[in-house]
């Protein structure tokens, strides 16, 4: 005679599996909430005070800032008022941490040796810097791979690249943006607004850079 041997009631096994499933589900939900809290809560906080941004170019240099119809609100193009444009140093507007250093879109083929080469797409070589308090700056159309890396801490005035014409660019220049949270805002330099707020019409002004190394004690 065969005896049927069991190690427990089937219902007890189902209850055990059900309890384990509920525990795992609860732990998963807690983990998701923790991630959301870490990522989303800082983004919901109001932005901090505006950093004292400086022009992203050499100390004492005078540059033309401009926009034009179709350029997009708050975007600024910078051109030197004298001297060669290609290869001019691009400097960090304020201290911060590099969050992007690479290629936006495609590079195209415009170089100092071939300035009328084919255009690329987007911003070409570019850098984005997080300045804290949900403030960011962006630097586009750089000549070559950025001189900084993601995660690198940079000081105000530190060189991050050189001016070029990569991406969707018709001539060598620096496309520059300031952002508060996810939104572009009017650029301020040395504590004053630039006046570039929309792209309804062509607009230019000249400013002299105060992006100078701190005095040595």
Automatic annotation (TrEMBL):
**Which GO terms fall under molecular function for this chain's record?**
metalloendopeptidase activity
Extract the CDD domains matched here: M23_peptidase (cd12797)
Q: Which SUPFAM superfamilies match?
A: Duplicated hybrid motif
Under the heading InterPro entries, the entry gives: Cell_wall_metabolism_enzyme, Dup_hybrid_motif, M23ase_b-sheet_dom
Show the PANTHER family listed in the entry. Answer: MUREIN HYDROLASE ACTIVATOR ENVC, PEPTIDASE-RELATED
TM ranges? 21-44
Record the organism.
Answer: Micromonospora craterilacus
| Keywords, in A-Z order | Membrane, Transmembrane, Transmembrane helix
Write the protein's name: Peptidase M23
Superkingdom is Bacteria
Q: Which residue range or ranges hold the M23ase beta-sheet core domain?
A: 87-185
């Amino acid at each position: 005679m065969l005896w049927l041997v069991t190690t427990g009631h089937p219902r007890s096994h189902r209850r055990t599996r059900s309890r384990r499933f509920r525990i795992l589900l609860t732990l998963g939900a807690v983990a998701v909430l923790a991630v959301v809290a870490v990522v989303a809560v800082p983004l919901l906080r109001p932005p901090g005070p505006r950093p004292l941004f400086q022009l992203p170019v050499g100390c004492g240099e005078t540059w033309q800032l401009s926009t034009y119809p179709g350029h997009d609100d708050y975007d600024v193009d910078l051109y030197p008022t004298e001297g060669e444009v290609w290869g001019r140093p691009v400097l960090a507007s304020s201290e911060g941490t590099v969050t992007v250093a690479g290629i936006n879109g495609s590079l195209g083929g415009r170089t100092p040796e071939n300035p009328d080469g084919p255009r690329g797409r987007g911003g070409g070589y570019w850098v984005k810097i997080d300045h804290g308090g949900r403030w960011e700056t962006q630097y586009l159309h750089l000549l070559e791979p950025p001189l900084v890396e993601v995660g690198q801490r940079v000081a105000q005035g530190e060189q991050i690249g050189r001016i070029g014409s990569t991406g969707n660019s018709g001539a060598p220049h620096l496309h520059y943006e300031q952002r508060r949270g996810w939104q572009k805002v009017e650029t301020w330099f040395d504590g004053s607004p630039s006046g570039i707020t929309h792209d309804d019409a062509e607009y230019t002004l000249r400013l002299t850079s105060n992006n100078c190394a701190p005095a040595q004690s």
